[in-house]
Amino acid sequence: MKIRQIIDKIDENQLFVPAFQREYVWKRNDAKNLISSLIKDYPTGTMLTWETNNPPELKGTFKYDSNKGSVKLILDGQQRITTLYMLITGNIPPYYTEKEIENDIRGLYVNVETLELEYYKVKTMENNPLWVNITDLLQGKISPRDITDELERRNNGERIPRDREDLIYANIKSIEKIEDRDFLEQVIPVKASIKEAIDIFYIVNASGVNLTDAELALAQISGYWPQARDLFKKKLDELAEQGFVFKLDFLVYAVLAVTHKMGSKMEKLHSADNRETIIEAWKLLDDSVLDYVCNLLKSQAYVDHTDEINSVYALIPIITFVYNKPGNKLTEEEISKIIQWFYYSQIRNRYISQLPQKLDKDISIINDNPNPFDAMLAIIAEERPLEIKPTEFIGRDVRHPLFALMKWYFKSKGAVCLGTGLSIRKNMGKKYGLERDHIFAYSVLRDSGIYDMSNQFHYAIAQEITNRAILTQIENREKSAKFANNYLSTVKQRFPNALKLQCIPENEALWEIENYEKFLEARRVLLADELNAYLNNISITAVNVTAQLDLMDVIQSGEHGFLEFKSTMRWNWRENRLDKKMEEIILKTISAFSNAEGGKLLIGVSDEGEVLGLENDYSTLKEANKDQFELHLRNIVNNAFGKEFATTNLTVNFPIVNTMEICEIDIKSGSNPLYCEVQDKNGRTEKKFYVRSGNTSQEFDIQETASYISKRFDLK
Question: Is the dihedral of CA 286, 288, 291, 294 positive or negative?
């Protein structure tokens, strides 16, 4: 079917989109790529349609009348078709409302000489007649002659060269031919049922990355419960008004959790046998559970909006727990344990990777364990240390979950804006919204000649969360680039308790610009002490629960700041041979963990979490067993870092995972810096300094190393 015909059929109410389809989610870059492919005559995909006398609920205002015969539905390809409709007509198609267009891709410009595609840029396009709005071009509002005449006018009437004129005309013809391009149409038979059509829609999408498992599950639910999508969206709007912004995926996870007690296998929701169960479950979620959980977070965890939350999926186990409680009646003790676990789930990145598997684990604990949040907290403690150390703040910016915890803690203390004295709990009026500003103004730090962008480490120190205070917007605008000593002195005079409430050191000597890094050191210690005390004291009672966490759970959690996978110690998998160069990588990782907060290294596991075992490594040793492996490992560690380190800072085990033996090395946080000797491509040996950051071991240069060591280690 030609693109022109598709657009005409949409306008003539002959082509529709079923209600179970998602909203328009393409971004501007997607639109640019599609138009570029069409201009170049590249393949652009297909469309899947279904002509039926028994359609599901349709998007838009059109109501199906069985007396008018069959209708044709777009099941796949609607993101592309919607893009073309908007760019060719300049309008939103009738099956969508403006609210359902997440990204407005209209206003795309094309350079008719080079065929570049861009959205409007004043410097590039203003007073340049070659840049034309592609919609105006496709609608015939601008002709080739208009463009060439304007070029000649700007060239004092001198005619442009014929070859240039021909190029512009040819390019415009290529653009105008877009409407005559064919979209290959695949058609589902008329005899197909709604269930069969949705199954085909699922199969088509399941092989790609266009829709998530949750979106495909929602499509199935909407097939047997047509009102589901609209009801879910209505609830999302209600929650968003209270500051809690979720996506439809989130609600589908919640439904799966309370109806099937799991966080994976979305296909469990596909069968129409679920209809009554899901309707009943949704009524309870909609009427009370979702509102209760959001209000619980707002009133007890001091979370004013979801922007402060690292992963909203931590709410799914909480929703499941509340759902299971008759009348949503929780005790004070239960609420305390929920909040404590929620905080740790955020700062220790519980749901950043392996989401379905982790939800499976946690939801099963919610349903089966008498002390579920104690048990889930024990799992986090097995994966990563709970205690916050001052060094964790080094170089961390506002995107780090510790910053959110800082805000929640400040709110719990009744902290106030440093300039206005107003509570930093959610305030009325846009100008009193919360912002995070530097205590030591960045412009002042930059002008000192040390903290500019030329040095990665120093720039990170300038942006560190320990150099941030929570202010209202109006105060942030008026604060400007004041020197910290002047600003903080004024704050202390006007609001004597404000600094203490935001854990800002009150030693005035630390407010001087030359003492900036000493200020950060003092605040790191202050924050770590107070945050740890706050987290430890949230729960009224502590139940001693043993974590039911096997090593496969750890592997499925993926690499992070305290966990690294290595396929081998000395076997080159790519070249299928012994390669002692691999040992340098092991030593680098051990030193990086030691120089940071410690961690766990698993040898015999690929980066993707596939268990490979140690068989190939064993084959390179005198005796192919774990004893020889450990002996060799300790020898290379002894030679690199000394026997004392190898004896006191490493614990080595050989667990069996998926029937294969791997090596598990636990590395303690070191009391002295470790340098790692590596050879360059010319065979020259040099010492390097590595630090664990995120899920990588980062090399520091000389200046960064000196700065880090002075803060991390007590070398007096």
Answer: negative
What are the phi and psi torsion angles at 454 (to 5°)?
Answer: -70, -20
Q: Are 653 and 664 in contact (CB under 8 A)?
A: yes
Q: What is the DSSP string of 232-286?
A: HHHHHHHHHHTT----HHHHHHHHHHHHHS-SS-GGGG-SGGGHHHHHHHHHHII
Q: Is residue 516 part of a domain?
A: yes
269 and 307 share a domain?
yes
Residue 470 dihedral angles phi and psi, to the nearest 5°:
-95, 120
Residues 6+ apart with CB under 8 A from 578: 570, 571, 572, 620
Which of 554, 651, 518 shows the shortest CA–CA distance to 594? 651
| Residue 545 is assigned to a structural domain of this protein | no
**Which of 538, 562, 579 represents a domain boundary (last residue)?**
538
How many CB atoms lie under 10 A from the CB of residue 608? 9
Task: Using alpha carbons, list the distances in angstroms from residue 210 to 31, 77, 79, 202.
Answer: 15, 10, 10, 11
pLDDT value for 43: 82
In this structure, the answer to whether residues 59 and 147 fall within a common structural domain is no
CB 513, CB 448: distance < 8 Å: yes
Rounded Cα gap, residues 438 and 209, in angstroms:
40
Residue 716 has what pLDDT? 47
3-state helix, strand, coil in the chain (%, to 5): 50, 15, 35
Residue 100 lies inside a defined structural domain of this protein: yes
Alpha carbon separation from 534 to 407, 408, 537, 660 (Å, rounded) = 13, 11, 5, 42
CA nearest 117: which of 174, 36, 44?
Answer: 36
Direct distance between the N- and C-terminal alpha carbons of the chain, in angstroms, rounded to an integer? 78
Q: Which residue is it, tokens 């442009």?
A: 160
User: What pLDDT, on the 0 to 100 scale, is given for residue 215?
Assistant: 83
Question: Is the separation of the CB atoms in 311 and 351 below 8 Å?
Answer: yes
Q: Domains in the chain: how many in total?
A: 5
Q: Is the dihedral of CA 30, 36, 38, 44 positive or negative?
A: negative
Instruction: Give 394-407 pLDDT, tens digit per residue.
Output: 989 998 999 999 99
C-alpha 203/C-alpha 165 separation (Å) is: 49
Among the listed residues 95, 100, 86, the one whose alpha carbon sits nearest the alpha carbon of residue 35: 86
| C-alpha dihedral (214, 217, 218, 220), degrees to nearest 10 | 170
Would the pLDDT of 2 be above 70?
A: yes
| DSSP assigned state of 288 | I
3-state DSSP call for residue 62?
coil
Tell if the pTM clears 0.85, that is, is over it: no
Distance CA 208, CA 716 (A): 58
Helix H or strand E segment including 406:
helix 401-412
In whole angstroms, give the CA distance from residue 701 to residue 487. Answer: 34
Residue 80 lies in a domain: yes
Q: Which domain holds residue 639?
A: 551-712
Q: Which amino acid is at 473?
A: Q
Element at 485 (helix H, strand E)? helix 484-494
- pLDDT tens for residues 96-145? 988 889 899 999 999 999 999 999 888 889 889 999 999 999 999 999 99
For residue range 406-459, list pLDDT tens digits in order: 999 999 999 998 888 888 876 433 433 456 788 998 888 888 777 777 777 888
| Nearest residue to 664 (alpha-carbon basis) of 597, 545, 569, 560 | 569
